[in-house]
Amino acid sequence: MLHKNGYWSLLCRGRKKKIVVLTVILVVLLNCFFYVSLELYNTIRRKEKQPWYNSLQFDKNSYVDESGMRVIVGHYVGGTNGGNLSEEVIHKNNYAPVPGAGEGGRPVQLSQRELITARELYSLHSYNILVSDKISINRSLPDMRSDKCKEVQFDLENLPTATVIIVFHNEAWSTLMRTVMSVLIRSPAQLLQQIILVDDASDRKYLFEELDEAVAKLNKVKILRNPERKGLVGARLMGARQATGDVLVFLDAHCEVTIGWLEPLLDRAGSDDVFICPHIDLLSEDTLSYVKSIDAHWGAFSWRLHFRWLVPSGEVLKKKSENPSKPYPTPAMAGGLFAVRKSLFWRLGGYDEGMVIWGAENLELSWRAWQCGARVEITSCSRVGHIFRRHSPYKYPGGVTKVLYANLARAAVVWMDEWADFYFKFNPEVASYRDQQSVANRIELRKNLSCKSFGWYLNNVWPQHFFPTDDRWFGRIKNEKGACIGVTVGTVGLGIPAVGIDCTKQAEFESLVVFTPEGKLMVDEGLCLQQGNGRAIWKSCSDSSKQIWEQKGPRLKTQDGQCLTLVVTKNMHGIGDPLTSKRCLTDDKQIWHFERVPWR
Ligand code: UDP
Ligand code: MN
């Protein structure tokens, strides 16, 4: 038998043996060193590639859809408003432009060290203030217009003039001033009557004298100060009352307009029956790069009355491709950026002054416009960048929920008719705000303007909507095994595999389905059940025949005669188990019970 060391002794002896052992140890150590260095390098690279804010906790109420459009749901998370930052940091203007930074709308990248500071300062504005402070307030931007738009000639002599109204509450100095400067640089002088800044009771010190001084150097710009925080509605009304231009153009305080932005807005707003919105591009909240947003989008809302960007109707898409420079209708506006003839704005009742701080005013205005004989449109020829934020950085007096629900309740009570009942019935948390609203003057306004019903609006302005109606079936579709058809809360997006949903919680949205006369199974967020490759999926409602389901007794059949089946594997009720379309059999899993639920 060989001794344990026998192999060694056979291979080499004495000094030689030592050298071999040492060499092996050295090689192993060197390998370890290289491996660790490589891993370290990769980790740093990976971190660099990811936007730094990925390490922060975000509101799940926002997502980027497959076309790259940020879909903002709303700011239901109140901001920390500076968190633990020192008074000095909160109140200081650190604008220090670096030559070339962000020029041409390009992103600004920060060093590792700066990224740490940027992260600390993020809660102040919910965008990267360090980057904003490095970019000149006069920076250049690309021309994002299509060729067709560039060809359009406007007769400047005959366009109405504009008052641009920018309201702000504790905005960053550089971002606010860049908004102002972009308007000054890129608006034909004869069309720009004035810019009115309305300070909605900001308390950041750099927005006092320092802003006054900067503005005093500019022509046509003035500041109004709200002594008390009113919110964006109160502040915009204050600006509108002082406007001397023919058209009111509202902008948020973190926008940048691009070449040719004003002419198409004024051209359309001149007609006196339309609220016209620019095409809103994205200013990255991370790098402030100017990013083109998808060509075809329009604004609408979910069952919870959250604003949504959606793909427009087929008809609108067709017209858009035939004539890309022509404004197209939208069921709702995002709210921050639009133009309207002053006379029309006041004739239709301005804004609802009962709305406080933030939220729902865009839906209220959109419904009011459409229902009372005007229109809401988007022109892709006017391109304005806006920083879409994931969080609202402000304080909401009384809490964000109270503010938002009160505003939503007002809008619903005045304009939504039967659908207000639907909204309150399935959003019980908002229902308690319903009776607290004094809206007599707004209802009076609706009467005086002889406005049409919400049903008319849904039918005519947004026939593709996914709300229940009297000629659509509404309720729960429950499998013999127990699980229901529906989408889990939070799974917004496109092309999600469909699974059985727990439908024992009665008031939940998740398992409520609209079944249309043409055979579409719709749920909230405009998703329709679609026959996939075997597996059924939830996809944006479209004209696809794969979204048509025919009810044959207790079965739901696809166009090619397959049966909707719950593939029970996980538990006896099939909750969380896949929905597929399969050959029809005598099978419990293909049996569905239709439990109608009154929708109002
Ligand atoms: N704003 C205001 N007072 C408030 C809240 C907001 O003047 O109490 C301003 C804000 O500075 C911005 C505009 O209203 O210019 C719209 O608000 P925000 O940008 O937060 O809304 P979003 O674009 O995120 O929907
Ligand atoms: Mn905004």
Characterise this structure.
This protein has 600 residues and is an alpha+beta fold. The protein contains 18 helices and 25 strands. The chain has a 7-stranded antiparallel beta sheet, with no helix packed on it. Strand 1 (62-64) and strand 2 (70-72) form a beta hairpin. The chain starts with 5 loop residues before the first helix and ends with a strand. The relative contact order is 0.09. Mean pLDDT is 88; it is low at 1-12 and 41-80. Manganese (II) ion binds next to loops. The chain crosses the membrane at residues 20-38. This is Polypeptide N-acetylgalactosaminyltransferase.
- How far apart lie the N and C ends? 90 Å
The Cα radius of gyration reads: 29 Å
Q: List bound small molecules.
A: uridine-5'-diphosphate, manganese (II) ion
Order of the strands making up the biggest sheet: 16-20-19-18-17-15-25
What is the β-strand count? 25
Short characterization:
With 600 residues, the protein is an alpha+beta fold.
In terms of topology, how is this protein built?
Layout: H1 6-11, H2 14-49, E1 62-64, E2 70-72, H3 87-91, H4 112-125, H5 129-134, H6 147-151, E3 162-168, H7 173-186, E4 192-200, H8 209-216, E5 221-226, H9 232-241, E6 247-251, E7 255-257, H10 262-269, E8 274-283, E9 290-291, E10 298-301, E11 307-310, H11 314-322, E12 328-329, E13 338-341, H12 342-347, H13 361-371, E14 375-386, H14 400-415, H15 418-426, H16 428-431, H17 440-448, H18 454-460, E15 473-479, E16 496-497, E17 513-515, E18 521-523, E19 527-531, E20 536-540, E21 550-552, E22 555-557, E23 563-566, E24 579-582, E25 592-596
Parallel strand pairs: 3-4, 3-6, 4-5, 8-14
Antiparallel strand pairs: 1-2, 6-13, 7-14, 8-9, 10-11, 12-14, 15-17, 15-25, 16-20, 17-18, 18-19, 19-20, 21-22, 23-24
Helix pairs in contact: 13-14, 14-15
Bound molecules: uridine-5'-diphosphate and manganese (II) ion (MN).
Uridine-5'-diphosphate binds next to strand 3 and helix 9.
